[in-house]
Amino acid sequence: MEALSEKQIRASFVNCTKGDAARLRLPLDFAATPWADLDFLGWVDPGAPLRAHLVVPRAEGPLGISLRVPSVGRTSAVKSSLCQLCLTGHASSGVTLLAAPLAGARGREGNTVGTYVCADLACSLYVRGKRVPKLRAGRQEESLTVEERVARLMDHLNAFVARVTAGADIARR
């Protein structure tokens, strides 16, 4: 992923207000972002821990999505969970349901879509083996190359983005 400026990131959001985009906080370590190892930028807002953000590179420019993080942890007896984007297995606390308001009028009416994602939003690092989940059996042995795993991650992410933006007239800021 190419490096993005703070202005580019704030202007990219399609499912929140301009005011919300202006108020979001960038990752604490934003200056040290490993852009070359990322396929998308994802973080939990350090000023609002019940908010997370994704910025996905697109041909027409970056596309940002604001997400809600559950306020309470899951209470199920599940011992492990699988990220629906990168297919990395984690201890149950390592995957969280993120809900995105839909872009446009449907989102303003309260409609959302959700997906289970690595709680630290570091999918790109997991598929490259640069980060290892706490659960030992987190990454099953695969015959796919890193490039193929990255392509699968991006296919899953782009499908989620399509669900968020479906039917909305997305005007860039």
Task: Please provide a written account of the structure.
By secondary structure, this protein is α+β, with helices and mostly antiparallel strands. It has one domain (6-165). Helices cover 24% and strands 21% of the residues. A hairpin with a 6-residue loop joins strand 2 (51-56) and strand 3 (63-68).
* C-alpha termini separation: 21 Å
Morphology call: globular
Number of helices: 5
- Strand order in the largest sheet: 1-2-3
Number of strands: 7
Order of SSEs, N→C? Answer: HHEEEEEEHEHH
Please state the structural category: alpha+beta
Oligomer: single chain
Mean pLDDT: 89
- Give a quick account of the main beta sheet: strands, pairing sense, barrel closure: 3 strands, antiparallel
The stretches of 5 or more residues where confidence is low (pLDDT under 50) are none
Total count of domains: 1
Rg estimate, integer Å: 16 Å
Question: Which percent bin holds the helix content?
Answer: 10-25%
Provide key terms for this protein:
7 strands; 173 residues; 21% strand; 5 helices; alpha+beta; two-stranded antiparallel sheet
